[in-house]
Design brief:
- The structure is a homodimer of 176-residue chains.
- Chain A is mainly alpha-helical and 176 residues long.
- Chain A has one domain.
- Chain A contains 5 helices and 2 strands; from the N terminus they run ααββααα.
- Chain A has a two-stranded antiparallel sheet with strand order 1-2.
- In chain A, a hairpin with a 2-residue loop joins strand 1 and strand 2.
- In chain A, helix 2 runs antiparallel to helix 3, helix 2 packs antiparallel against helix 5 and helix 3 runs antiparallel to helix 4.
- The longest helix of chain A is centred in the middle third of the chain and has 33 residues.
- Chain A starts with a helix and ends with a helix.
- At the A-B interface, helix 4 and helix 5 of A face helix 4 and helix 5 of B.
- Chains A, B: It is a multi-pass membrane protein.
- Chains A, B: Keywords: Cell membrane, Membrane, Transmembrane, Transmembrane helix.
- Chains A, B: Belongs to the Casparian strip membrane proteins (CASP) family.
- Chains A, B: Homodimer and heterodimers.
- Chains A, B: This is CASP-like protein.
Chain lengths: 176, 176
């Protein structure tokens, strides 16, 4: 099959397979991020200064946005696997690749927005800000902070994969 | 010239001209954002509760990141105008378009990260958060808040333009 369609097609198919694998990597990363942040919902009780604190991800709207963004991107990645398989079978498809670049770009923006907003809050939680009197809360909410900080990793990894995916699609389009 | 190279080339050239115009629009938007946020540096003295407050953009590291991100993206857009002109002249160029898609994608991610981190802080400044005891500061720093909120508009506009730029490049590559 590859022999009939020639070398260019073989390269396209190789890129399409890599696209498929990268999408699965991104799916695992974003899904792990969403779950890691989303399950900080489980009560983490602390006893500090005679008050029982309970830290949940949805105490901060940016964390909620982070979970929603990662969930949407994960759902999109599952759906896009179908298009990726279609590209492995029909390596000459053009229009579907353009659509994929557009959707990938939109999802990259959504994922970056979620990760960055959450990162801003995680930074504040760790360092606080004296000028605005926003105090660091990580002394009290230690494991909450660790959990939310860790969940950012998947999202930032997913961003890198998305940039690679867009680059791969562009290379395939130019190599036609 | 267009007649010799045919209709497809004419379309490519039209898209290349649109690319050039969109880059100038994005440049104006991101530069305006950077300047609007960066000049909140000018002292804005308030007298509240017998204390003189001074709000600057670099009181918050996310605002500094916002200015830096917008400045980098603006500088990139100026440089990319040269490639855009090259595409108007040589509408069949392929590799340079792939490079442009890659760089545009990276810049979109940077711009989104800056805008989103700043937006998270602006949201906190307006609404505050009771669970973490981060109080809204916009009652005191009214014009500081207005300025920083307004400067986000350019960045978010720039993001939309970048998505369009990547889409245009992808369409041109597929239409070869």
């Amino acid at each position: 099959m590859v022999g009939i369609l020639g070398k260019a097609s073989g390269v396209s198919r190789g890129v399409a397979v890599m696209d498929f694998i990268l999408r699965i990597v991104a799916l695992i990363a974003t899904l792990a991020s969403a779950i890691a942040m989303g399950t900080t919902d489980e009560s983490l009780p602390f006893f500090t200064q005679f008050i029982r604190f309970r830290a949940q991800y949805d105490d901060l709207p940016m964390f909620t946005f982070f979970v929603v963004a990662n969930a949407i991107v994960s759902a999109y990645l599952v759906l896009s696997l179908a298009i990726s398989v279609f590209h492995i079978i029909r390596s000459h498809a053009q229009n579907s690749r353009v659509v994929l670049i557009f959707l990938d770009t939109a999802m990259l923006a959504l994922l970056t927005a979620g990760a960055s907003a959450a990162a801003a809050i995680v930074y504040l939680a760790h360092k606080g800000n004296t000028r605005t009197n926003w105090f660091a809360i990580c002394q009290q909410f230690n494991s909450f902070c660790e959990r939310t900080s860790g969940s950012l990793i998947g999202s930032f990894g997913g961003m890198v994969v998305f940039v690679l995916l867009i680059l791969l699609s562009a290379i395939t389009l130019s190599r036609r």
